[in-house]
């Protein structure tokens, strides 16, 4: 079953010029891009997107970071895209991420960790709808 997930190239990776390399890695890993937009989050959007983390000590810093510059938001499609993309991203903390993962190769630290990926079908559906209307998804094939 084809599945879709939300990917964000975060402001640290955008700032240091890694966007192209990350997209290249995603395409070579077998993901099709079915929607994409470059945008810059407002503080309110960053807080809404990460609302699940609002009680965490890093919430203020995380949301300030997420609106500190542009992001590239994409919907990726593949067989088991959600879990496969999580594996391609690597662990939240790049110091713990496996060799060859996006976070190992492109992240700055545990907060500024280069990429976001949905963690389950429900969150993927919510996160895709947060950024894209159905009209913005490209029909493949
Ligand atoms: P995930 O992005 O790997 O799913 P989550 O636990 O959902 O990780 O956390 C969301 C984001 O919050 C992380 O990607 C990272 O940017 C930030 N974050 C998570 N844990 C910490 C922390 O302990 N310190 C600072 N930032 C953190
Ligand atoms: Mg998460």
Low-confidence stretches: none
Return the CATH architecture.
2-Layer Sandwich
CATH class: Alpha Beta
Shape from CA axes? globular
Q: Count every helix, treating DSSP H or I runs of 4 or more residues as helices.
A: 7
Q: Which structural class matches the secondary elements?
A: alpha+beta
Strand order of the largest sheet: 2-3-1-4
**Share of residues in strands:** 15-25%
User: Which percent range fits the helix content?
Assistant: 25-40%
CATH superfamily: Nucleoside diphosphate kinase-like domain
Overall mean pLDDT stands at 97
What bound compounds does this protein have? inosine-5'-diphosphate, magnesium ion
According to DSSP, the number of beta strands is: 4
- For this structure, the CATH topology is Alpha-Beta Plaits
Report on the architecture of this protein.
The chain is an alpha+beta fold and 141 residues long. Helices cover 39% and strands 20% of the residues. The protein is built from seven helices and four strands, in the order βααβααβααβα. The model has no long low-confidence stretch (mean pLDDT 97).
